[in-house]
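We were asked to recover a plausible sequence for a given structure. The inputs and outputs are reproduced exactly as logged, with field labels preserved.

PROBLEM: sequence recovery
POSITIONS: 193
GIVEN STRUCTURE:
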């Protein structure tokens, strides 16, 4: 269908609103790899029979022992922006919103603070519905697992962050993205694991 002359065209070469690094960030967020995808749902293709898997030597394909882990460098002030950018990219690459959990180690994400203003019952009902990206504090015991967990290391005491990282890894089914100061994150992982 041709464009009507009054409709503006958006060209892919035109930079979007995130072309400039967020305040507190010196460089744009590295683009996270979308991570492994779950198996396709059964449907008409499944009724035709199994598709043979490509043959690979067993020794060349070691079994995965946990989620893929990515570190996105960001200052403490820029960690929330980096996490939001990672979520945007995950959604743009086909991840369903209900597959993503975002955890914060310092101040709550603005979405979480807003939703909690309506009460905890409503807030946690959204978590349990698994319809959308969910934002919670890293120490929220009630936050369950999701295929993708994004952690914004946006503050918090070192011992709390040290506990939060392994807990986030346990919640992540396929991909864990940590947004924060690489030196702090690596030092805390080394000290806590």
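RECOVERED SEQUENCE:
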């Amino acid at each position: 269908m041709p464009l009507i002359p009054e409709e503006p065209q958006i060209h892919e070469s035109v930079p979007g609103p995130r072309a400039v690094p967020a305040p507190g960030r010196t460089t744009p967020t590295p683009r996270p790899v979308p991570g492994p995808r779950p198996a396709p749902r059964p449907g008409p293709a499944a009724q035709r029979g199994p598709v043979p898997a490509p043959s690979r030597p067993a020794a060349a394909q070691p079994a995965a022992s946990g989620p893929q882990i990515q570190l996105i460098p960001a200052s403490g002030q820029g960690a929330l922006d980096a996490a939001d950018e990672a979520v945007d990219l995950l959604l743009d690459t086909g991840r369903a919103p209900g597959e993503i959990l975002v955890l914060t180690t310092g101040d709550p994400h603005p979405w979480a603070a807003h939703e909690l203003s309506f009460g905890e019952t409503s807030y946690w009902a959204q978590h349990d519905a698994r319809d959308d990206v969910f934002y919670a504090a890293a120490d929220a015991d009630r936050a369950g697992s999701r295929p993708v967990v994004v952690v914004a290391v946006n503050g918090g005491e070192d011992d709390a962050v040290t506990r939060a990282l392994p807990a986030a890894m346990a919640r992540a089914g396929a991909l864990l993205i940590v947004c924060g100061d690489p030196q702090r994150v690596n030092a805390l992982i080394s000290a806590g694991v």
